[in-house]
TrEMBL record:
This is Ribulose-phosphate 3-epimerase. Binds 1 divalent metal cation per subunit. One of its GO terms (molecular function) is metal ion binding. Gene3D superfamilies: Aldolase class I. One of its GO terms (cellular component) is cytoplasm. It comes from Acidomonas methanolica NBRC 104435. Pathway: Carbohydrate degradation. CDD domains: RPE.
Length: 229
């Protein structure tokens, strides 16, 4: 599993063609994606609905790299095992999605998966201070969760810098999710992020029939970060 802490581009398939998801996952991987980011939404924790564990299981044979599953569902605990069985490699949860986040992270690790914590723009870093020893990835949301194609929230850059200091030498990935483009990506990489989720900036202008556009879009983000890396 490609889990080292070099720069990773993780396209969000929320912006892919839902009628061709398997082919879309294969296409982005062939075009240079490092991980595949899967946004799970329940219409309750966030105001949108996407897909569940059955979709993850169906996509698993089409994803040969890390399947990074971002759960925007509450309560989250009853579904952790189903996503683990569906083949998720990383399972990220929001601390607001259950009463015992410490136990939730233990459960994820107990199932042999990497444990992630996703923080909304309004959620302070203090919430995760006593959770870091159980955490493999912290996802800083740079939009309010629920939709692709939203505008990057610049106040989160300082949060990434503070998180980087807070993590110290623990082996934890810093992921950025929302509004990542060739313009915003270097700002967060400079602040300490190493995983960039990008939906509209990867899939925009392309299609399964024109996957080279995805390749150009991924390269544009990666190259924009080179100086910051
Ligand atoms: O989790 C989410 C949204 O809730 C994201 O993963 C988005 O899907 C990112 O989309 P863009 O902002 O890159 O278009
Ligand atoms: Fe996401």
């Amino acid at each position: 599993m490609n889990f080292d802490r070099s720069l990773k581009i993780a396209p969000s398939i929320l912006s892919a063609d839902f009628a061709a998801m398997g082919a879309e996952c294969e296409a982005i991987e062939a075009q240079g994606a490092d991980w595949v980011h899967v946004d799970v939404m329940d219409g309750h924790f966030v105001p949108n609905l996407t897909f569940g564990p059955a979709m993850c299981a169906a996509l698993r044979p089409h994803i040969h790299t890390v399947m990074d599953v971002h759960l925007m569902i509450a309560p989250v605990d009853p579904f952790i095992e189903a996503f683990a069985k569906a083949g998720a490699d990383i399972i990220s949860v929001h601390p607001e999605a259950g009463p015992h986040t410490h136990r939730t992270l233990q459960t994820i690790r107990g199932l042999g998966k990497k444990a992630g914590l996703a923080l909304n723009p309004g959620t302070p870093l203090d919430v995760i201070e006593y959770l870091l020893d159980l955490t493999d990835l912290v996802c800083i949301m740079t939009v309010n969760p629920g939709f692709g194609g939203q505008k990057f929230i610049h106040s989160q850059i300082e949060k990434v810098r503070r998180l980087k200091r807070m993590i110290g030498d623990r082996p934890i990935h810093i992921e950025i999710d929302g509004g990542v483009t060739p313009e915003t990506a270097p700002l967060v990489v400079d602040a300490g992020a190493n995983v960039l989720v990008a939906g509209s900036a990867v899939f925009g202008g392309g299609s399964v029939g024109q996957p080279e556009v995805y390749g150009r879009n991924i390269r544009a983000i990666r190259e924009a970060c080179m100086a910051a890396v």
